[in-house]
Amino acid sequence: MNALRREIAKRHLLNHLAQGASLRIGAQSASLLEPYGLPPRLLHLSSTVGVLIGLDQLEGFAPHHPFGAHPGLTWRAVARGNHPFSASEVLRRHGRALADASHDELSGYAETFGVKRRPFGKRHNFKALPLIKEARSIEAPRRAGLEQIATAAIEQEFGLSRMRMSATLLEVFAAGQGFSDAPKPAGLRAKMEMSGTVGWSRVQFFDDGSSPIVEARGLTMALLLHELTKGTVELIACHGLAGIDDQMYREVLGATDGIMLERPALQAGLALYGLWQACLPPDVSVADGLCRLAIASPDIVEATLMAAIEDPPSARQIMSNLAAATI
Question: DSSP labels for 170-223?
């Protein structure tokens, strides 16, 4: 495998960790927000919305994307080498099993919050819409305070200063609105996917050399926390791009960034993130572990995540070695 393909595989894996972390935070947002004295109904709605939106992503369907393929088709293509994720041996070998494990985990959250399984062909998002509206009605008079709570919660979870986050709860309740400055996707399916956007994040870099920040927007607290998490992990993962030249940097981002890759990355990412997190030594924080993994070589990243699935003690040893290394 040439150097470019290895860097692409590494970036795909780090993107999976970012997507998986964000999905877990959205589903667990009730417990994350509980210390901040918010109304119990809002806490329940926050996690319920996170679970409903997550199930749509994991099951491959959404109202704005009626022809979304079943995840099994995606992961079959990955295993056969016919998908961008095929660059990673981890995803070729274990992608489908990870997607199944992610669905099982999120289904467990669904039972906790009383979300019933849908009949085939129905859309969880249709059930989520009235819950989103109810959550927004509770959030509206608290919007400014909730934005501060969101950044404080993510700072507590990942260690990134809230001063490096910009969080916005959108006032307009319309999928696809409030994201006019987001990159414009090419292709009909990508445009359909973008038209249903209810949350968005990016790492904002500055020409004057100022520290980059995470900018996130969402229709509800669950979606805002999801996007803040994704942006925060992506910012940490940017350390892994520092060691490659500009041309390779552009090629890696061109091959790994795009809205059509987000849904399948969510499908496998939730389980992959959980398996990796379980291999962190007790004295290594999630943020430090992500940073150490991001700056490691593509081969080490691949080996670490493969071991997290197949041989967790070995993965724990690799992460201990990475944590002990001098940066």
Answer: -SS-STTTT-TTSPPPPSHHHHHHHHT--EEEEEEP-TT-PPPEEEEEESSHHH
